[in-house]
Every structure is written in structure tokens, then in C-alpha cells.
Amino acid sequence: MVYWQTSRRRIALDRTLVMGILNVTPDSFSDGGHFTEIDTAVARAEEMISEGADIIDIGGESTRPGSDRVTVDEETDRVVPVIQAIAKRFGIPVSVDTTKSEVAKAAVDAGAEIINDISGLRFDDRIANVANDYNTGLVLMHSRGEFESMHSQPPVDDIMAEVAADFLRSIGLALGHGVKSENIVLDIGIGFGKTFEQNLELIAKLDKLVVEFDKFPLLVGTSRKSFIGKVLDGAQPGERLSGSLASVAIAVWNGANIVRVHDVKETVETVMMVTQLKMET
Ligand code: 9MG
Questions:
Q1: Dihedrals φ, ψ of 4, to 5°?
Q2: Which residues pair with 55 in a beta bridge?
Q3: Residue 222 CA, closest ligand 1 atom number
Q4: Nearest C-alpha neighbor of 260 from the set 234, 229, 224
Q5: Using an 8 Å Cβ cutoff, are 185 and 138 in contact?
Q6: Is the pLDDT assigned to residue 33 strictly greater than 60?
Q7: Which atom of ligand 1 is found nearest the CA of 221?
Q8: Tens digits of per-residue pLDDT, 37-53?
Q9: What is the predicted pLDDT for the residue at 193?
């Protein structure tokens, strides 16, 4: 049995887990004066948990193309009260989506047990110190370029080789800071510094990376991303459910251990179906 060690538990990876996305950026709330932002976030977490989410990933800085950076203080102020509330109220593992070590530390102190770093330690390698000090789970996602330029990188020739080489660099950095292999999860970083075709290629050939990095679980996040909109004749993010589920199905078929999604209920059902089918191979 494969496990993912976090600061609070050993998570069994005997099936593909569903990580629900909870963005706590100002544009993600429409409280209409009825709920505070924290209440809204807690209610959304509760909904995702009731739909079968295994992990809640909480982020306070948007990584969408064109997003501005926020300061450490602002990001901390956004995520910490929400993490505190969710970790206290529900037993579910909470992950913090950040590239800043100060935010990661504050989030872990507030109850997060996983750090999800979309830069794979490239922006702030002290994230690895926090992961090591607290024995948290650590997601090392593949991306290219700096925060401001990561969505406009010149394409590389061989994305499979590039991702594999960069995984080795990120893993080396993490281990060099004392992080243990059992805490690390790798992520191919769909939509970050890849061409449209390369995003498709990474999902379609994920099984190659699963074999090459068999000591590490793999996480895949395709939910509502723009490559799906391109396939579906310009579908907007809210119209990308079928495309998101199709890509989850292929990722699970190819060996993804965790999928990061907005639409938890539909994804849980898709994962159940693919898992059952895969048992017949
Ligand atoms: C924060 N974030 C946005 N997309 C992501 C993805 O594909 N994986 C992970 N781990 N985080 C992501």
C-alpha cells in the first residue's frame, strides 16, 4: 500500500483521491451581505466534503494568467482564518496553495498539513524548510518561468523530458533540505508553461511519468483549464465540466493518485467509474 505522509496523518493512496479547490481571493466571494467570507468558505468546504472530497486545497493568491502578486501579509490574512476554521471544524486534510514560505508556515500553524507549491520550490526554497520542520506533505508542481511570466514561456521541444528533468531538480532540492520522500507528491502542472498540445500530451502519456517516478505519487489538475476551452470551441470555465471529467478519466486511467478539481461530486463519480473499469485490465 502506498501512503502520503503529512504532519497529521498517513493518507492511504489505495484509490485516486479528490482534492477540492477553495480559492479565497476577493473575486471568489459573493456574500450579498449574508455571510462573512470565512462562513462562505467553510460552507463551500462542507459542501465539497459532503460530495466526497478527500483533501481541501486553500489558496489566497490567484495563479491564473494576468493575476497580480499579493503580499505575504495579504495572502496570510486571506488564508489563515479560513484554514483555522476548516481544520477545526472538519477532520479533512487541508492543503495550502502558496509559493511563499512565510505564508506556508502561518498556514501550517493554523492547521494545514500539506503545502502545495506550484513553483516546485523555484520561487522560495525555504518552503522545504517549513515542510521539513513540520513533516508536512509537499506538492512539487512543474512550472516554468517567474510568477509574472509563467504563462508566456517560449515552448520547449520535449515537454516529457523537460518535466522529468525539472521533477528531478525539485525532488533534489526538497531532499537536500531534509524533506523525506514519503512526504512528496509530484504534479505535472497542466497549463503552466506548456503549449496546448503539450498539455494534452502530458495527460495522454502520464503513464510514462508514473513509471519513471514510481517512488512518488502523482497529482493532476486539469479542472476548467483553458486547454479544455480550446478543445470545446471556446467554452468558458463554467462550461468545461465534460472536458474536465474526460481529462480526469484519462489521468486516472494512466495512474494519477490525486486529482485537483472544482466539481467534486461529478469527479468522484468519474473516478469511481474509471477505477472499476481499470480493475478489468
Ligand atoms: C494552484 N494550482 C492551480 N493549478 C494547479 C495544479 O494543476 N496543480 C496544483 N498542485 N496546484 C494548482
A1: -115, 115
A2: 19
A3: 7
A4: 224
A5: yes
A6: no
A7: 7
A8: 899 999 999 999 999 99
A9: 94
Query: What are the cell numbers at 108?
Result: 501550517
pTM score: 0.96
Taking Cα atoms as reference points, which of 100, 110, 113 lies closest to residue 72?
100
Mutation pick for ligand 1 pocket among 118, 192, 228 (CB with most ligand atoms within 8 Å)? 118
* pLDDT tens-place string over residues 90-130: 999 999 999 999 999 999 999 999 999 999 999 999 999 99
- Burial class from Cβ neighbours inside 10 Å (0-12, 13-18, 19+) for residue 33 reads exposed
Measured distance CA(76)–CA(56) in Å, rounded: 17
Q: Could you read off the pLDDT of 187-204 as tens digits, one per residue?
A: 999 999 999 999 999 999
Report whether pLDDT(272) > 80. yes
Residue 149: per-residue pLDDT: 86
Is 116's C-beta closer than 6 angstroms to any atom of ligand 1? yes
Give yes or no for residue 217 CB within 6 A of ligand 1.
Answer: no
Q: Would you say the CB of residue 117 lies under 6 angstroms from ligand 1?
A: no
Pairing relation of β-strands 17-23 and 184-187?
A: unpaired
Query: E-assigned strands of 48-136?
Result: 55-59, 94-97, 114-117
Q: Whose CA is nearest to atom 5 of ligand 1?
A: 221
Ligand 1 pocket, 261 CB below 6 A?
no
Q: Is the CB of 63 under 6 A from ligand 1?
A: yes
What grid cell was written down for 185? 507528491
Ligand 1 contact, 16 CB (< 6 A) = no
- Give the pLDDT band (50/70/90) at residue 145: confident
Mutate which of 116, 186, 188 for ligand 1? The one with the most ligand atoms within 8 Å of its CB, which is 116
Supply the angle between the helices 159-176 and 196-204 in degrees, to the nearest 10: 70
